[in-house]
Prior knowledge:
By secondary structure, this protein is mainly α.
Amino acid sequence: MALYLSNLGAAGIILSIAIMLASGFLLTRITKRLHLPNVTGYIIAGVIIGPWCLNLVPSQYIEQMDFVTDLALAFIAFGVGRYFKLSALKANGKNMVILTLFESLMAGVFITVSMLLLGLSLSFSLLLGAIGCATAPASTIMTIRQYKAKGPFIDTILQVVALDDAVALVAFSVCAAFVQASSGTGAVSISQVVIPVLLNIAALVMGAVSGIVLSRMINKRRSKDHSLVLACVTIMGVAGVCSSMNVSPLLACMASGTAYINASGNKHLFKQLNQFTPPLLVMFFVLSGMRLSIPSLAAAGTIGVIYFLVRIAGKYAGSTVGAAVIHASPEIRRYFGLALIPQAGVSIGLAVLGQRMLPAESGLMLSTIILSSGLLYEMVGPACSKIAIKLSGSIPDKEKCTKKEKKGDGGEMEETVSAQARHVVV
């Protein structure tokens, strides 16, 4: 099939996208019966149609679809920005920062120590630990959308996963500076450490400015269709500029969404985007599954397995201690760590930089561990997120929701239908 599609040119690309979307939908018919999140089905679908199973999509198409990842992360990050209203941050921003520092840095410490105990170099251990601090918000947010989860537990998740990558970037920069200073080879210049940090700062500023500009362009006289067009131009423009600078669009687009919600106070645009993005997000997760390399998993071996397990333990322990420090609710203390397991996006970008700072063999091992474990986290993470959300009591009771919808007016019913559409659940 892959060979046949590769000979069709543009038609083959269109058919490949159709296969990706169809396989994602069909696998959710199975995961739904097993009471698993849709995201898990999407990723499994990608593994099945990928090059190591049925090989339905040409490998060259898979390699050329990096833009799907950047776009999906961009739209997700912009949506996360709505939860960073200044009024809310003033109320509990300090606690969110403390909780994020504990869950993020403790995972990094756990990983670094475990790698050192295995006899690996300090440079490798520090870089892997710093990368392990990051959390991928995409699958967690998709799971939240699917089950219409709401409440303090969900608000805490959304704020922490948004701050998490910022902490990972700072931690990696510090560790990279140490690795560079202790290296006697001189292969890596200080600019390779400083420039990425400066570029991320510039991207944050650009994202914030774009959000303010967007809030000025969208007003009551602007039609919904054109508002959506302007939002897509802004998000894609920020993501495109970030990609051209080899910077993850995550932080910049999050800053754009944050600036927009604080400048306009209008949440309707975010609802429109949630209706627009489901096919893109399905492609993103199916693509992640297709990139799972079986040989890479075998090459990572024991070190990869230990990294996979230790990071989970570190995230859980860090979130538990952090929640205790800020006197968080029992639900956050017990279940919050389960929602922080997924890892991809920013961690993959950091792995590429880290690979250049290490000897060839160590660098390849680091990159392999992050790429392969990241895909495994994306398979296990959504199920763990669902468990955490359910145990925290954040999933509304179906009977209560039905009664509330029946009592509501037409506007409320319309919003409910829109919500169902964006959850990609049929």
